[in-house]
Design brief:
The chain has 286 residues and is an alpha/beta fold. It has 2 domains: 2-169, HUPs (Rossmann fold); 182-275, Pantoate-beta-alanine ligase, C-terminal domain (Pantoate--beta-alanine Ligase, Chain: A,domain 2). 37% of the residues lie in helices and 19% in strands. Strand 8 and strand 9 form a beta hairpin. Helix 6 (120-135) packs across helix 7 (147-159) and helix 9 (197-210) packs antiparallel against helix 10. The radius of gyration is 19 Å and the shape is globular. The chain starts with a strand and ends with a helix. It binds pantoate (PAF).
Amino acid sequence: MQVIATIDAFRQARAAFGPLGFVPTMGYLHAGHLSLVERARQAHGATAVSIFVNPTQFGPHEDFARYPRDMERDLRLLEGAGVDLVFAPAVGELYPEGFGTYILIPSADQVLEGAARPDHFSGVATVVCKLLNIVQPTRAYFGQKDAQQTVVVRQMVRDLNLPTTIVVAPTVREADGLAMSSRNTYLTPAQRTAAPVLYRGLLAAQARYAAGERDGEALRQTIREVLAREPLVRPEYVSVADPLTLRELVDLDHGALLSLAVRLGTVRLIDNLVLGPVDPKGSGNF
Ligand code: PAF
């Protein structure tokens, strides 16, 4: 496994490979990341992973400085997973003095995570575009856990005609249903005990949908009621939206994306579940 910090050296190393699967990460890897790596490896053999905590996707009061980092452990895990190339640049390598080009996706900034985190998706789209240009992967792999991110990345790839196929893989969960996230390490023991309520809320709405409920507000209310049983949890939003446009749904005649964001103390957690069929042309592998 080659670990490379500069764009020039990475491009040189990458040239020795043909089709390549790529998993972009911010490090502090967990089983969710490793499941993406495994998918990439099975599809391509040759696999690249980036480790880069991207400052442009964090707001001024968010957790960029304290975002968990453990490069040694990450590299051990990636070596064990059979990764060929790791791109781990310093901030100055991707954002040198004078950097001034950002991708804007205005539609993403109006809803869900975009509305709660101004400029977040501009930062994500910008860094993912840069990484795809540097790594030149055949396919890039993202987790369903960040559902809106997958919509944004697909739109960016489509709009800018980037020659990479985006693959979205299912969320990996702890045994009690909590979606894996590097930020779970921020939770106190009491918050960690309360956190699986996010998934329980989603499952309750899924059960009502399976029983025939098609009213969007009734499903949102079901999730809110489950969340209300955990006093430590403060909901930020509960959404039942079109999985492709992310517009809130009144009636569910096709599929829907159930998603939510909550705070447990200062920790912000998100989760989601997809209901029913989704137009495969738009989303591929929800
Ligand atoms: O999902 C993440 O870890 C990040 O948003 C990504 C895609 C690596 C871009 O920084």
